[in-house]
Every structure is written in structure tokens, then in C-alpha cells.
Design brief:
The complex is a heterodimer. Chain A is 0% helix and 40% strand. Chain A is mostly beta strands. In chain A, a hairpin with a 7-residue loop joins strand 12 and strand 13. By secondary structure, chain B is of the alpha+beta class. Chain B is 23% helix and 19% strand. Chain B is built from 3 helices and 5 strands, in the order E-H-E-H-E-E-H-E. Chain B has a 5-stranded mixed beta sheet with strand order 2-1-5-3-4. Classes of the chains: A mainly beta, B alpha+beta. The A-B interface holds A 35-36, 57-63, 76, 79-80, 82 and B 7-10, 13, 43, 45-48, 50-52, 57, 59-60, 93-94, 97.
Chain lengths: 371, 98
């Protein structure tokens, strides 16, 4: 029977949550890699039993784990992430040049067609790729050698490449996003890259319309419309319909346009989800009410979704990689919180219920729809 | 044989219980012991020292015979008691964090 598998990365391990297509009863497996930070767990679209997990620790560094049986067993694979050539420098918080230093893998994006091919977005910002199932990782260095790179600066969470979007219709095209440099696109599988930030305006940088320097929090794309991207920026929800050549704001009537997570309905490319967060500094839901906002018009007009979500005394955050959708007939939407809850909606956001309530802070949520 | 005590998370990663016993050719030094350890347990590469620079990770320490050997040059011979296997070489994760 069709089902779903929710892959949850937390501050203290990974969890695998499974259910049948009704999405009412859940089996919880974990913690896997207990005590380690799991920034991301993701599955191969080409082989749903092939999973990859980024396991890291401030003490013992980076590991990459691979499962070939849907998360029941795991094996460590390659963990050497060496920048290509002389790493060079980027700007440090105080404006001085700072050498590129590998810290951790934030995001793993498996190829849509080959389970052995995976892209890894890392801190300090760079893009790596494996073609042998994770044993050996090579940097795609052209991105980090972009002329603007010495001017890139870390955001508060570090200078991370956190979003990778692969165009399912064009193997050469890929989008990435870096905090706090902005969004970039390649049309030739990484041989050349260019910033795609025209239309972004950010008040926290000297030139509000700069080519790079924007704190992009997350990109979302519907696979049927790879030229249309939605962006949750530090402030502003943005949209492009020309593969990033130009962006326009679609924050519309949101109560605040700050947030981290953003995603698109599996079957309705104009239906978008965000979780508005109060900022600066607080980074929790406004008025203590956890509300997902849904637009059915591709932005601008947003409705709060509250049924089943706490509407008082809620002060959690929803991080950038912690929202996902399944592809069942009635689209399921999922998100995790820094309070350790993973919420699921089996009706496209109309109603919500927690799958789990007491996990460690949730860093990432991915969903696999199983045959 | 050199006796090595790993911290909890690295024992889990290497899938070992208790001490690790290593054969080290030549005079045992910090570098020789870590080379032998990583050769026996490749999963530990990068967890104790950086794979590129070979620098000890900041929150890892090396103790033996009630001494902190963390700041010793990596090619300094280890204490005789470690070399003879009467005392273990301790790899320790800093006690910190939430």
C-alpha cells in the first residue's frame, strides 16, 4: 500500500517516521546516530531505499551515513570534504578576510535519476558532489571561485550553502542559495555560475539592490515549473518566473514576511506555504500562535492555517530545511519545530496533528512517498 | 600492543566496545598511534584530527599517565608505559555542550 516516510534531522539524532497513505498512525524509528547533530536526511528519488544523512559534531567533525534499506541500517561513507585548490578568503563578521574552512554539510540533494549521485551544500559555502554513492566527494569549485566570493559574509548561522534545487527537465541547470550571499544558477552542470538576485532588496546591507550579499533563507520549486521559484528571504517572500532573472515580492498580506521555511504543494504549482516568524531577534511565531500561511494564488494573498496547531504560548521556530510535502493524491504537508514537534497535514494544510511531540530541536524534514 | 581508549561517540562510530589494541611499528608516537588507529578503523578519519591539515580537532585531547599530551608535537615518543601497554592512551572529548 502507498505510504510515506518522513526523514527528520535533529540536534541529537535522526528519526524515521512511517505511515500508510492515510497518514493517521505513525511508526517512529530512532534516534539514529544518537547525540550527533543531523542537519539533513534525504532520500534518492531514483531509489527510495537509498538514504543519505549528514551527521556532525562540534567535537568529532563530519560523517556521511548511507542506508540502502530505507533507514533500517546505515553505513558510514566518505567524509573528506576538501576544497579544490587554494581555498582563498571570504569576509569575516568584522569585515576582514577569513580563510574558507569546512565546518559541516547542511544539505544533501540526491540526483533525480541516479542514486549514487548526490550534491552536498556545505559551510563554509561550497558545493560538493559524489558519483559513487558517497564514498568520494569532489568540490564543484567554480561557484566558490566566483569573483564576488571574497565579499561573501556569513549569516548568524554560518556561511552555509543550504539550498540545492535540481531542474528535473534540464540536467545542466541547478539553483543554490547561500547565506548571506544570495541565489546562484548554473546552466551547464556547474561549469559556470552567476548570481540571480535581481529584484531582491535587503535593508541590512549597504547597497539594498546589490548583486550579492542577500540573506536568502530558502528556495522552493514545483518540478513541473522549474523556471518558477519561490524564495523566503530574511525579510520578504519573493517569486521569479524566469529562472531567477528577476524577482518580485509576493509577501502580500502576510502578518510578517520574515521566516525560514517555504514549500510548494505537490499538485498545485500556485499553492505555496510559509511559516511567518517574528523578527528581528525573537525568531518565534507572532503572538505565540503557530500558523502556517498558504497562498493559492502564487503569493500575495495568504490565509492562516491554524486547525490543530497551538494558538497560544507557542514560541518555537521552524528552520529553513524543516518543511516538506508528499505527493499522495491529497497532498500532505509536514514541518518540524525547534521544540521537537513534527506536524503533519494530510489535507494540504487544512488540519494538522503532531506525529511526534518531544524530539530534540528539529533541523530538517524530508518526505518520501512510497509505492 | 598499544591500548587506546576512545570516547563514547567514537566507540559507537567504530563499533567497538572497551579498549582498542593496536600494533604500532617502530617507536610509538602520537602520529604513529593515530595512523594505526585510522588504518584499523577508517571511519575515524577526520574525527580526531583534520584529514587535510592533520591538526588535532579543537575539542579532542590526548591523555596518558596522568599527563595532558595534547600539545606535544605529534612525533614525540609516547611515555614508556604506553609503549609497553601497561597504561592506555586516552582520546578524550571535551566535557562541554548541551
Amino acid at each position: 500500500m502507498t505510504g510515506v516516510r518522513v526523514l527528520v534531522g535533529t540536534r541529537k539524532g535522526a528519526f524515521v517516521l512511517t505511515s500508510d497513505g492515510r497518514r493517521q498512525q505513525w511508526d517512529v524509528s530512532g534516534p539514529h546516530f544518537a547525540g550527533w547533530e543531523i542537519y539533513h536526511v534525504n532520500g534518492s528519488p531514483a531509489d527510495p531505499n537509498r538514504l543519505y544523512a549528514s551527521q556532525s559534531s562540534g567535537w568529532f567533525g563530519q560523517q556521511i551515513q548511507r542506508s540502502d534499506d530505507g533507514g533500517r541500517t546505515w553505513e558510514p561513507v566518505g567524509n573528506k570534504f576538501e576544497y579544490e585548490g587554494t581555498p582563498g578568503t571570504h569576509q569575516w563578521f568584522d569585515g576582514t578576510p577569513h580563510p574558507w574552512e569546512f565546518a559541516r554539510v547542511w544539505h544533501l540533494e540526491p540526483s533525480t535519476t541516479d542514486p549514487d549521485v548526490v550534491y552536498a551544500g556545505v559551510e563554509d559555502a561550497a558545493l560538493f558532489r559524489t558519483t559513487d554513492g558517497g564514498q568520494i566527494w569532489h568540490e564543484l569549485p567554480i561557484l566558490r571561485n566566483h569573483p564576488s566570493a571574497p565579499s561573501w559574509q556569513p549569516g548568524a548561522g554560518g556561511m552555509c550553502l543550504h539550498t540545492i534545487k535540481l531542474d528535473p527537465t534540464d540536467p545542466g541547470r541547478m539553483y543554490v542559495a547561500i547565506s548571506a550571499a544570495g541565489a546562484f544558477r548554473t546552466d551547464d552542470a556547474g561549469a559556470t555560475w552567476r548570481p540571480i538576485n535581481r529584484g531582491l532588496r535587503s535593508q541590512g546591507i549597504p547597497d539594498e539592490d546589490a548583486e550579492v550579499g542577500h540573506c536568502v533563507h530558502r528556495l522552493a520549486m514545483h518540478p513541473s515549473r522549474p523556471d518558477t521559484l519561490f524564495m523566503q528571504k530574511h525579510w520578504d517572500v519573493m517569486r521569479t518566473d524566469d529562472a531567477g532573472e528577476s524577482w518580485h515580492e509576493v509577501s502580500g498580506d502576510l502578518p510578517t514576511d520574515f521566516g525560514f521555511a517555504i514549500d510548494v504543494h505537490a499538485h498545485e504549482p500556485e499553492t505555496v506555504y510559509v511559516v511567518p516568524i517574528k523578527s528581528d531577534s525573537e525568531h518565534f511565531p507572532m503572538d505565540g500562535k503557530l500558523r502556517v500561511y498558504r497562498s493559492r494564488t502564487g503569493g500575495d494573498e495568504w490565509e492562516p492555517l491554524t486547525d490543530g496547531l497551538p494558538q497560544e504560548n507557542c514560541y518555537v521556530n521552524v528552520l529553513r530545511d524543516a518543511m516538506a510535502v508528499d505527493t499522495l493524491d491529497e497532498c500532505g504537508v509536514y514541518f518540524g519545530t525547534t521544540g521537537g514537534q513534527v506536524y503533519a497535514s494530510a489535507d494540504a494544510g487544512d488540519t494538522w496533528a503532531p506525529i511526534v511531540r518531544y524530539l530534540p530541536p528539529v533541523l530538517s524534514v524530508e518526505v518520501q512517498t512510497l509505492p | 600492543m598499544i591500548r587506546v581508549v576512545l570516547p563514547y561517540h567514537l566507540r559507537n562510530l567504530a563499533r567497538v566496545d572497551g579498549e582498542v589494541h593496536l600494533r604500532v611499528d617502530g617507536e610509538p608516537t602520537q602520529r604513529a598511534v593515530l595512523d594505526a588507529l585510522e588504518g584499523e578503523y577508517p571511519v575515524l578519519r577526520g574525527t580526531i584530527r583534520d584529514q587535510v591539515t592533520q591538526q588535532r580537532r579543537a575539542f579532542v585531547r590526548f591523555f596518558a599517565c596522568e599527563q595532558d599530551l595534547s600539545h606535544e608535537p605529534p612525533d614525540t615518543p609516547l611515555p614508556e608505559a604506553v609503549a609497553k601497554g601497561t597504561e592506555p592512551f586516552l582520546i578524550v572529548g571535551a566535557m562541554a555542550g548541551g
